[in-house]
Amino acid sequence: MTIETMRAVRMTAWGEPAQVQRVRVPEPRRAELLIGVRAAGLCRSDLHVMDAPAGAFDYPLPFTLGHEVAGTVVAAGPDADGSWIGESVVVHGVWSCGECRNCRRGRENYCHELRPRADGRRPAIGNGLGHDGGLADAMIVPSERFVVRTRGLAPESAAPLADAALTAYHAIRTNRDLVDSHSVAVVVGVGGLGHLAVQILRALGAGTIIAVDPRADSRDLARQLGADRAVPEVADVATSDADVVFDFVGSPATMDSAARLLGPGGRLVTVGSGGGRLTVGKDLGLPNGWQVSAPFWGTRADLEAVVDLAQRGLLSVESTAYRLDDAVDVYDRLRRGAIHGRAVLVP
Hints:
Shape: globular
Number of helices: 9
Order of helices and strands: EEEHEEEEHEEEEEHHEHEHEEHEEHEHE
Number of strands: 20
Mean pLDDT: 95
Structural class: alpha/beta
Radius of gyration: 20 Å
Strand content: 25-35%
Helix content: 10-25%
């Protein structure tokens, strides 16, 4: 018996909550793969999309949310490699062109085809961000370029690797030259991404890791995961000699004060989108050689590296599983800050 419809968590109108609806099961064409979804993570980026006014994103409505997806390949289009069928995979959510100069450099997360339009509208990026995503019983990926084998990882653990762990890893990997046994690294915000950053820094041999979070349970978690110190506020870090500060909050309360932690040649890496602004200039008292960056997501190679860390037991995700049917309520809990670690929906 063929199942013709499935559940999907759909974005149907700007500024409105998502809805759980029934839609047709997609059929893979050309080189496409059909993924039977086994777990999909929720992200605050979804809330930014839902809350956006019409015109901010060049995303056709409706579409299915979900850009952290793990599952099994269950069907392949006529031009696809059929050997993928039956493989457990995690989906790389940056559906790049593969042809521009950044893609050819292996920097596909900075694909020229995915940059904002001339009018400021942001184009569809990948699954759950303009294209149908994985908060559903099944989803389509354009080709095998966008899947990575998970080789035995539990789906609930694998799904958050696609964004939470991938984004944290890319931010750290691109500053790898400052991560060694001598380094002083600060992680601001021990949430869905920050708790993974602590583990990645420890796995890569960072000398001193200082975590910042106002929540006592998050500070306790940071210490358990390898932080040398955990303090409530950036001001409590009590150093002006950090090699690199990873700000996973990016709020007005964190960005300027985080920059003041840097030592000579230090870097502030802003990952969070909390509305913070930072004025920079050579005459503002920042140390010699300071740098500020705002990395975006990560490459497929980064995702392979993250999966490898998880398979070797060096990276684990703090997550809570919920039913797919409860998606609207779980999004509300995420908005209220009532989710510990990462929320993962299981169809």
